[in-house]
Each structure stands twice: as structure tokens, then as C-alpha cells.
Design brief:
Structural class of chain A: mainly alpha
Order of helices and strands of chain A: H
Helix content of chain B: over 70%
Order of helices and strands of chain B: HHHHHHHHHHHHHHHHHHHHHHH
CATH topology of chain B: Amino acid/polyamine transporter I
Mean pLDDT of chain A: 89
Oligomer: heterodimer
Distance between the termini of chain B: 22 Å
Number of strands of chain A: 0
Strand content of chain A: under 5%
Mean pLDDT of chain B: 94
Distance between the termini of chain A: 41 Å
Number of helices of chain B: 23
Helix content of chain A: over 70%
CATH superfamily of chain B: Amino acid/polyamine transporter I
Structural class of chain B: mainly alpha
CATH class of chain B: Mainly Alpha
Strand content of chain B: under 5%
Radius of gyration of chain B: 22 Å
Low-confidence stretches of chain B: none
Radius of gyration of chain A: 14 Å
Largest sheet of chain B: none
Largest sheet of chain A: none
Number of domains of chain A: 1
Amino acid sequence: MDAEIIIWMIVFLGGYIAIVGYFVRVAMCARSKWK
Amino acid sequence: MAPNGQREEWGSRIVVVIAAISMAVGTGNIWRFPRVAAEWGGGSFLIAITIALVFWAIPLLMAEFLMGQRSQLGNVGAFRDFMGKKFAWVGAWMALVCIGITFYYAVVAGWSLRYFVYALSGSITPGVEGQAFWDAFIGNPLETIGFHFLAVLIVFFVVYRGIKGGLESILKVLLPSLFVLLIILAIRAVLLPGSVEGLRYLFVPDWPLLISGRVWLEAFTQAAWSTGAGWGLLLVYASYARAKEDVGVNCTIIGFADVLAGFVAAIAVLCTVYAMSPTIELAEEALAAGNIGLTFIYVVELLAETPAAWLVSSLFFLALFLAAISSLIAMIELITTNVMNFGIDRKKAAIYAGIATFLFGIPSALSINFLDNQDWVWGVGLLISGLLTAVAMMKYGVEKARAQLNETSDLHIGAWWTFLIRIIPLMFVFIFGWWVMQSIEWYPDNWWHPFEVFTTGTMIFQWAILFIVCYALNNFFAKNVVAGPMTKKDE
């Protein structure tokens, strides 16, 4: 697998996982009950 | 209302988010997203859909959530209470467009179930003729109607049991199972020799395509259809949310998680297609075959050639079926909630919704042309529902709505939201105009024809009938839908 594909996978897949993860973390630490 | 007379409510915030992601993740993530992403520039399309998510889908999801949460009613009641009694027809339009989709979507769920059974029984073996396999199935009305019935029956039992006992308990298991299946399929596909081409087509941007208007239009329509923005489904789910439920963060998670599911499905589908196709041309032919052709013809042939074909094909069609069912639950819940708003109890309303979905789905089970026509008419109709949601916000007061969003939101919703809601009509003109122009190009001589499958004429004809019915019944809707917390304040 060449470097170009790995970089773009990290950008898109990693970026989306990071965004979802960040907002889930915000929700879990927030005032409204998560569970 | 629950059997004890209490208002039904989701048990926790995580359940609201899971239910909403389940609603959004459907067959479109598996059979459309990979195809469109590969065709329209891979990474360039992913950039465009990310922007579409932020500019179109997430603002509309927030608007829908607010409408459902504040009104505690289905689509008809929510639009009545947000826009005024003269506009109950707008909610009816939104609900009926979604119901039009429900009828054929249940048929597609039935196909997924049938193919899962085929795979499980070991029928998908090397050398299988995908087209002949499909023709034999689709030409057998007993099977297409039978599996349509089974899909409706499964979903009916979930909706019949109510929010806590039915939807909540099923979706909590269904969504994680679907994600696990998609991840397993993606890992398996990446490990196939030659899969790297699939990853290249999905992730590496084709920069010149980024200035193509078509890429942006495909991205905006995919974002609108896939996330469920404008469908009215999130509005219905939000009507069972607690009054202090967060809107902003939840809707952002829903939008991004839906596209993330599309990424994982695209890795699974594209890596399999490029790894198992003897030539790149054949892979491109598979991706150009449309949703049905790709999934039920080419993927069947390609999966049959993979190592452990029985297991991989069973997992693939199980994932497709779970994705279909998770969205179908939301659709039949939409019908049920709106019927319940006429003072009918859940069990009866669910029975009516189940029977209607089965009966009105039969024409789509019998004719692919009919199904394609309904997909075309109501699929594009959803864009109008999205526009109407933005218009409802403007009528209600966008700043007032934003202030209400901020009352319960964990993150501050800035003036950007107001701006985006106000420019949605402009975006609508471009996207909708493009679809109409495209349909005229397909049928330059008879684009006006009301009885062709993909013409402008058939869209306008069916929308006009729906509009006339909804508008004529406006007073009936406005008077007979039960009052919610916002209705009481107005009186």
C-alpha cells in the first residue's frame, strides 16, 4: 500500500473517528445524563 | 402514550443517539455511498460530503430535533405548532413523502432478507450467475411478496411494543451489531490481494473533480438522503426525547457517525469489487450498475469467488438486512406516531401502519419499474421536505429557534446555524434544479410524461396529487391532531 493512500485514509477515516469521538466525549462529560 | 397513560420517552441520551444513528444508517450507506464515492473522485467526494454535512444535513437535523422535542408530536402536529394552523399540510406532506418511501423500502428490506437466506443456505457459490439468480428471484411474486411481508412483520413487532419495550431494546443491540459486521467485512476485504485499488478509489482525491458541480450535487444529495435530514424521522424520534435533551451535540454525532458508517461500508464494498474483479474495467462496470445491480448482481458474483464465500456473503447480506431494518423501524414508527396523534393507541396505530406498509408495498414487490419510479419521485421529494423544514424555522423565527437550541445544548450553537438555515432555500434551488435538468436530459422528448419511470412529469404529477390532498385536508389535520405542549400555550 503506498504512502498516499495511507495518508488520505488517516485524514478521512481518522478525521471522522476523531470528530465522532470528540463529540461523544463532550456528551459524556456534559450535564445531561449519557447513560 | 404508554399503556399506563404516561408519555413514552427514551430512557437515556445514549439511546436517543443510538436510535437516531440507526435511523440514518440504511441500505444507502452500503449500496449507494461506495458507488458514488468511487465514481466522483474518492477523496474529492469525501471533502464535498463533509461540507454538505455541515452546510445542509446537520443544521436540518437540529431543526427537526427541535421541532419534535418542543412539540412532542409527529410531523403534522409539529408543523402545525411551529408554523400555525394553516400549515398543518406541510407536516402531512413531509410524513406522506416519507411514507411513500416506506412502502418500497420495506420491499428492499425483504430482498436483503432473501439474499441473507440464500447466502446462509450456501446458494452463493463460485460460478453463480448473479443476473440469472436475481431474475429468478425477482420474477417469483410469491418470494418477493413473502419476504416483503416478513420484513414488515419483524418491524411491526418492534414498533408494536413501543419506545422502551420495542425500539429501545432492539436498536441498542442492532446498531452495534451492524457496526461490528461492517468492520469485520471491511477488514476482510482489505486483506484480499488487490484490495488496495479500492482504497485508492475511495480515499485519494481526484483534485480536478473538486471543481465539478456534479461532485458537489452528488455529495449534497447523498448527505441529505443518508443522514435522514428532511425525512421527518428524527423529528418523530425527538418527540420522545426528554425536554432537556441536548440537540446540537447529538445531531453532530448522528451526522458524522452516519457518514463514518458509509466509509466502513465503502471499504468493504470497494475493496471486494476491485480485488475480485478480473480487470479494472469490470470493477467500474459493477460500480456503474446502479444500487440494485451492484448489490444483488455483481457483489453476489464477486463474494461467491472470495475465500470462505459462505461466511462472507452471509455476513454481508446480514449487514444489509440490519441496515434496512434499522431504518424501516424509524419509518414505520413515523406512520405509527402520526396515527397515534389522532387519538389512537399505539397498538392499533402500529397494526394500521403494518397493514398499510404491507399492502401498499405490494406493487413495488411485483414491479421493479414501479419501485424505481417511487424511489425517483419520493427520493427527490425529500429535498422539498428539507426545504420546508428550513421554511418552518424561518416562519417560527430562526433566532428564537437558535435560542431554544442553546437552552439545552452542551455546545453553543452560533449565528452560523441561523445563516445556514437561511441559505438552505438557495442550496435547494441548485440541487433540485439539477435533478430536474438531469431528468429532462434523460428524456428530452417526453420529459413531461406523467407515466414514465424517471421523468420530470411523473414527479410533478405525483407531487401535485399529494399537495392537493394535503392542502385540502389541512383543516382536518389542524383540528384533529391532538394538542401538545406548544398547542396549549397558543390557546
